[in-house]
Design goal:
2 strands; globular; Farnesyl Diphosphate Synthase; mainly alpha
Length: 290
């Protein structure tokens, strides 16, 4: 089965298992709305790619890790869009959860997705206690303080912040979790894969900063100009457009160089570069059209 279809099937299985008929109907609807249809599913795809590079022998554990990462990502989007943060009205080309439902349900929806992520992980990897323990450490660290996505969101509440620290926590944490979780799901040491995820996460954040400047709602599915509007740290603000593009290319090179030795090292590096080439081409095209 193709990776994308496999991820969607695993996500649907998790939603079906956890959103039973006993669940408050509007909460269940809000959770489904936040998760489906998804975006590019970059993080779970990365998790699966690393697991494949490590010759993973248990697809159920890999799927649980990938779904857990994606549910946490969706939770972060729901909370990020709330009026107390970005007050965004569009996400993935449709009204944000607090617009489609209400602010109270959006808050609870994000909370439910976080809890569900750990339940999915425990259920899917419970047959291998050692791997589950490693995965819980990896995923838990990616969410909480001092360097997880909660810390990344909290940096927006500070009067001043180092750009790299902010981006590593807000975006890099889940990318690092994706690569580490892929390795841990395959029974390999997770820490060796952290650099790859961190660098890819920083690259993705730089690309997101660039899209915020040169993209438009119809193309990226969410409002643009948000960094300037909310006075948030931005690679474009710090380096300029060309400087940010150069930084993006450097991060991709560094990411590929950081891939540990494994049976699938070369195919994984080719996959990363192919994805990066598509992204860079899209950014140049949008910049030219702006």
């Amino acid at each position: 089965m193709a990776t994308a279809a496999r991820i969607e099937l695993a996500i649907e299985g998790a939603l079906t298992a956890h959103l039973s008929e006993d669940c408050p109907p509007r909460l269940a609807a809000a959770v489904r709305y936040a998760v489906s249809p998804g975006g590019a599913r970059i993080r779970p795809r990365l998790c699966c790619a690393v697991a494949a590079a490590c010759a993973a022998d248990n697809p159920h554990i890999v799927d649980a890790a990938a779904v857990s990462i994606e549910l946490l990502h969706c939770a972060s989007l729901v909370h990020d869009d709330l009026p107390c943060f970005d007050n965004a009205d569009l996400r993935r080309g449709k009204p944000t959860v607090h617009i489609a439902f209400d602010e109270r349900l959006a808050l609870l929806c994000g909370d439910e997705l976080i809890v569900m992520a750990f339940e999915v992980l425990a259920a899917g990897a419970g047959s291998s206690p050692e791997r589950l323990q490693a995965l819980m450490r990896v995923v838990g660290r990616s969410v909480g303080a001092p360097n997880g996505i909660i810390a990344g969101q909290a940096y927006e509440c500070e009067p001043g912040v180092d750009l790299r620290a902010y981006q590593q926590a807000k975006t890099g944490a889940l990318f690092a979790a994706a690569t580490e979780a892929g390795a841990a799901a395959a029974g390999e040491p997770a820490s060796a894969w952290r650099q790859l995820g961190s660098r890819l996460g920083e690259a993705y954040q730089v690309a997101d900063d660039l899209l915020d400047v040169c993209g438009h709602v119809g193309d990226i599915g969410k409002p643009t100009g948000q960094d300037r509007l909310h006075d948030r740290p931005s690679a474009v603000q710090a380096l300029g457009f060309d400087g940010a593009m150069s930084r993006l290319a450097t991060l991709i090179d560094n990411a590929c160089e950081s891939i540990p030795d494994c049976v699938g090292r070369e195919p994984l590096a080719r996959l990363v570069r192919a994805e990066a080439d598509q992204l860079e081409s899209r950014l140049r095209r949008l910049r030219a059209a702006a």
